[in-house]
Amino acid sequence: MSDDRDEAELLALLEDEYARAILAATSAKPMPVDTLSDRCDASESTIYRRVDRLKEHDLVEEQTEFDPGGHHYSVYASRLRGVNVTFEDGEWSVELDRRPASEEDVADRFTRMWQDL
Amino acid sequence: MIWGYTAAQFGAVLVSLGSTVLGLVVGYQAYRGFRRNDSRSMRYLSVGLVLLTAVSFSLAFFGTLLLRLQVLPAAVGDPLRLVVRLLQFAGLAFITYSLYSRP
């Protein structure tokens, strides 16, 4: 079953210590890659790789942070609150407890709406 | 009568004030959209909305007040109305332009 493979991949990802460190750090507040690199004691390319995999499973979400200097950068926020692995009736399954996705900023939504007209 | 205004005139001023506040809120969000997304069209939209609401209302309101208090000569009345209409036209022109400007 493809679901099983997804779930196995997910557990493999959670087995990774950097992935866990990223999920833990970004559960407190959204962070950019360079901050995560310091916090998790890993190179930025390691963080980028883990963040990409976490994004594939929708465990972190990317947000754009506005900087008054006009520089935009990405921050990452954890969407995973908990994992429940169940072994029952000869089957195993994984259940995720997700945080709701953050609300899009009204100015960004307005910009998108206006530009799509 | 409230401050020399009929109830209907006073109501009209209050509603115009409300429109100005709402126009400023939308204009402010458009300005934030411009700053956050470097969007030219949001800049023109923001300028257009502020001209259309806050600027033209303030000019009309204070102009009429000064006319009533006879600080300004009555002859200024018609040109003042023209300027207010021109500002509203400019506001709408900005908004129209923002629809066609990319991105």
From TrEMBL, chain A:
Q: In terms of domain of life, where is this protein from?
A: Archaea
Q: Which Pfam families match?
A: HTH_20
Question: What CDD domains does the database record attribute to this sequence?
Answer: HTH_ARSR
Checking InterPro entries in the record gives: ArsR-like_HTH, WH-like_DNA-bd_sf, WH_DNA-bd_sf
Q: What is this protein called?
A: Helix-turn-helix transcriptional regulator
From TrEMBL, chain B:
Q: What is this protein called?
A: Uncharacterized protein
Give the source's domain of life in one word. Answer: Archaea
Species name: Halosimplex litoreum
Which segments cross the bilayer? 6-31, 43-62, 82-100
Keywords for this protein: Membrane, Transmembrane, Transmembrane helix
Instruction: Offer one Pfam family short name for this entry.
Output: DUF7521
Whether Transmembrane counts among this entry's keywords is yes
